[in-house]
Amino acid sequence: MKKNIFAIIGSASKDSSNRRLVERIAEMAQADFRITIFDRLSDLPHFDPLLSINQPPLEVISFRSEIQQADGIIICTPEYIFSIPSRLKNAIEWCVSTTVFSQKPVGLITASAQGIKCHAELKLIMKTVEARFNDQTSLLIQGIKGKMVGKMNSFDLKTEESLVRFLDSFRDLLRDGGRYNESRTGSI
Prior knowledge:
The protein has 188 residues and is α/β, with parallel strands linked by helices. The chain has a single domain, classed as 3-Layer(aba) Sandwich (Rossmann fold). It is 38% helix and 20% strand. The protein has six helices and eight strands. The chain has helices at residues 17-28, 49-54, 58-69, 86-93, 116-128, 157-176, and strands at 3-9, 33-38, 72-77, 106-112, 138-142, 148-149, 154-155, 186-187. The strands form two sheets. A six-stranded parallel beta sheet has the order 2-1-3-4-5-8, with helices on both faces. It has a two-stranded antiparallel ribbon with strand order 6-7. The chain starts with a strand and ends with a strand.
């Protein structure tokens, strides 16, 4: 039976390399996963802690519901000014007062020019909300624009191989419930 995966795109660009990367993952994993791509972070209002608990906006309720109902989550984001994009952080903040990420299997991909600081920050944030991920489901792809091939969702051989390993590990996480391990991080 296919697993339902909710993929959150951290980029604000419509034709971003992050979206293309997740579309490629969806192609590669279509036998195992039904991937819903969420690239509408701008639809979520600015975080308000009082509303978050007492009366969350409908867009936030829908976003939380997608996370809650998914078998697993993939977050694919660029780095903006050595950090995660503000819209992605805003979306996660709307979930902090809930348990939607708690013990949820998550794959983390930072695909950017550099991405090191963003990737570390994303892992720390997801650890804080108690998401389940491990080093093999955490992938840093540096220089992503130079790794795209043509106009389709194709990437160079090294990136494709990294995506295969990431997907194998993500399948294992969904099946076995792997735990976070800071010792090693996948990167290319």
